[in-house]
Amino acid sequence: MTESIGRFLRVLAFAGLALAAAACQHYAAIGPGSYDVHGKIAVQLDSQWNRQIAGPRAPWDESWTRHGPLLDALVIAAGIADGKPLIGASGKEAEQLPKFRAGMPPADLVTLVQGTLGAAERASDFETTRIETARIDGREAVRFEFTFGTGADQGIESDRKALGVAVEIDGQLYLVLFHAVETHYYDALRPTVETMLESVRIRPKKT
Amino acid sequence: MNPTRRRFLGGLCLCGAGGLLACTPTDPGRPRLDAGLGGQSDLSPRNQPGQRHGTDADPDAGMRESMDRMERRIQTSRYRVREAKVNAYVGGIVRRLAGEFAEDIRTYIVRVPDFNATQAPNGMMQVWTGLLVRCTNEAQLAAVLGHEIGHYTRAHSRERQAVWRTNADIAQALAMLLGAAGAGQLSDLNTVLLTASGFGYNRENERESDEIGIRLLAEHGLSPIEAARNWENITAEFEARGIPRSHSLLFSTHPSDEERTAHLRRRAGELPPGETHAARYRDGISEIREYIFEEQVRTGVHAGTIVIADRWLAVFPDDGLALYAKGEALRLRARTGDDEAAAAALDAAIRDVHAPANAWRGYGLLRRKLGQEAEARELLNEYLRRAPNAPDRDLVRRSLAG
Q: Which residue of B has its CA nearest to A86?
């Protein structure tokens, strides 16, 4: 019992620290201009985004948002190796994330992205609307769109749309994924995301 | 992705709306159908049929309003399963089990791929699709639904709110007294102990509802042992996924899985055996079986999907949807030996009339990976024939033209 109380008090202390941390800055402004993601992807931003600087990160991923993650989010993962998840997570959570496998067919990549969103965001009810080939930095890539929802289990639903582009180079995956609330935010931000996608330059490096 | 990287898959039960929803993820009484629980004389309803709480300016008014708002959202939600047959089937089980409370409980099937059902104090019951894919017979589903009905008839949410309100009042008063006595530093401990007592009350509610659920199974000729099997199945799934199920003595809202399983097994031995109705269950949810298996595959939790599919296959060895889910999870996981096992499952899946078009795609992609291009082309052509509007049709056509 004493141990449980101790654990609970530690949790309270941690929660206090977390609240204190919340008062600090979790995002840093980036753009407009050029921006480099882990030395592997370069993009041109036509406007300002907010890059998440707190929270678990993998050495290959970044998360940005314009209006806050509940409304819109953009994930860039640069050079995901075979057997790794798309995004960073801590400890046991990382083990539960679905993993990228080199040579994955396009539809499987979409399933991987959806599984990751399901695990990390408790997203569900995915409906893939399009999977097609696209060019990104002169390379053949796969482009996909799907709808999904979040918050059904909490009674605070949010219908969202997603747009992603992925390309595998030397067994590593390069992914840009944008998703936002369907009402207003997705359509409002899509042009700037499309412009950014056209500017993507990939600099594959073996790790 | 949400930069906060919310915790995911943290537990079976995710009670929303400030914990007002009573939910499935509970031990014990000893006795028989007509006897009491753990020394209590009876489990008779605290609610009355047709009773509507919180309509006056009483402490439950806000809770009632909040639940009514949530119910209105669910009624128009994209997540709500609207297929008529499955709603009639699941709703019909609830009505039969609820008896005189049948008109008071409204059932909504919701597209969330986790094992759960919730019962709100206003009568709104949510049944998640993740529960439907994890049950393999009617008795297993009814055990959960009966448990939720128990929460409603015993008015657990209202009682719990009252306990928390009382505890908060006591904590406040004690803090003032301790402060006045110069021992204000002890007020935090006082709060912790009262909070723990609130969680203890939750666990007792869960035990009551487990008992009500298993009694309802027996009363309706359903197999009581299936209530215990639910927990054994969940334990097996979590073990396969490598997730330990933690349990805190003070701060758990539910009894441990082991405690629940052991108690329900013991109780089942004291009650008359009944039917499982596996075939009736499979037929009852047939409209959405393809959706719920596909939804499970898309979680990317391959080890869990394989365990769930194997459970179905133990009952229905030729079930095309379960074979598809197993094969697809193995193919996507792609560990050593998975390709061969996936090929066997997908090969069997496409022989069943209920196999989804995606089984041909998955099997085709697997054959291609294994260097069997001729077979792959045949399977992918069949996929296009069965799913002419598939979102990846152009990509697949292109790969076949090359």
A: B1
